[in-house]
Design brief:
Elements: H1 2-11, H2 13-23, H3 26-39, H4 53-87, H5 93-119, H6 133-137, H7 140-161, H8 168-191, H9 218-225
Helix pairs in contact: 1-8, 2-8, 4-5, 4-7, 7-8, 7-9
Length: about 230
């Protein structure tokens, strides 16, 4: 169960160490610290009985599929910001700074997911070939609106996979990235002047369109990003 995975990660200090080592870097540690604090901390609780080898393998295979799916989306986002910055269309210094910062963050997600997949014994997917030129050709506002939609899409995609993740370490990593994607979306939605959600699955609107975030299935997400793939 997902709730069990969260509980175990919070209670088991050895699990936390593995999670931090899996992601690497001070940024990943600080991103997860608040999450663990919210779950509670009890260093004295004993770890549960370790799962059988076959169960671990099945869980790894399941998580690797989710991680490679997430990696594909992160490749897409990182490449988008890279191309926007290279185009030189962003003249406002503050907006350019945001684009560069968000692009760097997405690249860090790519690197963290790639490293995690390798540590689990998997093979990271290759970066997909993208086609953002039609979006770039439509000008800056189209680019900013697309960025906002893509970030909302990323947050919904991570939420949609939360229940499929078996490893508590991988789940915590996914949640820490989900939070960042959601904050990127909020910042961009505000920047382009979007108002309340308009019923499109939460992909538009600078304010939530309900009390609970709306997850998206893998099929729905891949359909939404198809126009950006070569």
């Amino acid at each position: 169960m997902t709730d069990s995975a969260l509980r175990e990660l919070a209670d088991d200090p050895s699990s936390r160490k593995r999670f931090f080592k899996m992601l690497g870097g001070a940024g990943a540690v600080s991103a997860a610290t608040a999450f663990l604090a919210a779950c509670g901390d009890d260093e004295d609780k004993a770890a549960g009985k370790p799962p059988a080898a076959a169960e671990v393998m099945d869980n790894n295979n399941s998580d690797l599929k989710v991680l490679n799916y997430a990696l594909t989306l992160e490749f897409l986002e990182a490449d988008f910001y890279k191309r926007v910055i290279a185009s030189g269309m962003v003249k406002d210094a503050k907006v350019a700074s945001i684009a560069k910062k968000f692009g760097q963050t997405e690249q860090e997600h790519v690197e963290a997911l790639t490293a995690t997949i390798k540590k689990l014994g998997g093979t990271p997917v290759k970066a997909p070939k993208t086609n953002f030129q039609p979006t770039l050709d439509k000008g800056l506002m189209e680019v900013l609106n697309t960025a906002a939609t893509v970030e909302n899409l990323g947050a919904a995609a991570y939420l949609g996979q939360a229940g499929n993740i078996k490893s508590k370490e991988v789940l915590a990593a996914a949640l820490s990235i989900h939070s960042v994607e959601a904050r990127h979306a909020a910042a961009l939605n505000t920047l382009v002047g979007r108002g309340f959600g308009d019923g499109k699955g939460g992909l538009e609107g600078s304010l939530p369109d309900g009390a609970f975030a709306k997850p998206m299935s893998e099929a729905a997400v891949l359909k939404a990003v198809k126009p950006f793939l070569a």
